[in-house]
Amino acid sequence: MEPCRSLALLAGSLGLIAILVALSTDFWFMAMGPTSSSHSGLWPKGNHDLVVLIAGYIHVTQTFSILAALLGLVSVGLLVLSCIPSLSAPGRGPLFSSITAFAAALSVMVAMVVYTSERWSQPGHPQIQTFFSWSFYLGWVSVPLFLSAGGLSLGAHCSGPRPGYDTL
Length: 168
Known about the structure:
CATH topology: Butyryl-CoA Dehydrogenase, subunit A, domain 3
Subcellular location: Cell membrane; Cytolytic granule membrane
Largest sheet: 3 strands, antiparallel
Pfam families: PMP22_Claudin (PF00822)
Helix content: 55-70%
Strand content: 5-15%
Order of helices and strands: HEEHHHEH
Protein name: Protein NKG7
Family: Belongs to the PMP-22/EMP/MP20 family.
Number of helices: 5
Membrane topology: Multi-pass membrane protein
CATH architecture: Up-down Bundle
């Protein structure tokens, strides 16, 4: 049980770090032209009129990414608490951590699919090369990390002692 819980804690922590870094950086999308380059993220900078005109897919991506970060934080917190027997319900910490980790993975996946599909379908310009950048890929990396954390937490729950039974 301990190796599964430790690995789940590691995967969940890495997933949480990945989504937090992806959320806080502005390198989701790059554009390179003949004389200059530009990058953008989920939090546009500029005057108030520009901020009001943010596309709907950006709002969806922001919302589901923040939800995923909060769920990932809860998952990691529950795993930490499950390591301290006096603070957790016997055997229930890894189960609830697994549920929240899977919910975090689903939230990130929704956010990333919406962002990817909307950016992919935007028309390009012949002299400007556009591509996804490293913050975008960190968002995608958090999906398998949260899925791994959920699976390993579930493994820790299933292999742990059942409440009410004496272990030999």
